[in-house]
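Our preliminary data section would be incomplete without showing what the modeling component actually yields. Below, a chain of 353 amino acids is followed by its predicted structure, encoded as tokens that our downstream tools consume directly.
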Amino acid sequence: MGLTEYECPACGGAMEFSAQAQMLSCPYCDTKIKVADYKAPRKEEQDKDAKADSNEWKPEELDGMVVYSCQSCGGEIIASENEGSLTCPFCSNNVVVKEKFAGDLKPDYVIPFKHDKKAAMKAYADFVKGKFLLPKVFYEQNHIDKIRGIYIPYWLFDATIDADYVFDATKVRTWSDSDYHYTETKHYEVTRSGTEKFKHVPHDASKEMPDDLMESIEPFDFGEAVPFNGGYLAGYLANRYDVSVEDTEAHVLERMKHSVDADIKNTVSHYSSSIVRRDDQNVSGVSHKYALYPVWLLNTTFKGKPYLFAMNGQTAKFVGNLPTSLPKAFALFLGSSAGFTLLSIIIWFLFLR
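Predicted structure:
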């Protein structure tokens, strides 16, 4: 299995991609190298030891996992079949498995991380700040079980939609004189036609990631995407896609159609009422690309239930679901009830007695 290791050419330390510097950086000697300029200190070669070590494991012991051998220390790295960027647990060397991102598996683009782990923890603190009903334990950062910077695989779709709509609309006018109240209703047939072109509409291509969570951290700015280079993955996890483009296309096209539908309906908002009589949408020019997008994932548990938070590693948008503290909710209910009762007594005493 071909492994690419990002060793510092100056001191041999494990280099990682720096979100601040947008370069490969060595945390030991502060050497910085542009991703495109990096050259491994030693020639990359097929890791024969990895295959040998893998044969020592029984298939039932691996259970969908793969064993690699670190070229720096010889330690065994065990990872899932879809992981393509790893860190050796023994020497902390950052490794990219070339085969996971080669041929048809090679991404067309990658958006590098712009926010680091410290920024993700700050975003979490800001997210829970001021939420009275949140259990106290969630305010403690050490309650986070795991925080990971991961490049999530995405399919990016382009398409063109031609739309033709017909509406039954009305305009209503009312007025009165000394004798009568009048209502005038005018009926209209309203037609709308238009074309919208969509580019790089994303859909995550990982079975592990909840689709609603990944859509919630959108949008990503594709203007900052760069051609794929494994150096951007150094120091982060990265998964190859395990959801086919065919399995995601229908959902993405439906999102596009909803956008067209909303845009066209907004053009008839100056009528008193409008009802769609006919709507035709024709989709053409569908194409796709494959990209890796940066995401911070934070995992925690509360009373045995897992909670997952995500932050867009490019824009720092933070999302997630939070539990409610029942004692705080009950206290709020009692406080609200007492306040309402007191207010009622005051009103009765001042105005009604």
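Residues 8 and 15 are 6 Å apart (CA to CA). Helices lie at 48-55, 59-62, 117-128, 211-216, 245-266, 326-352. Preliminary results of this kind motivate Aim 1 of the renewal.
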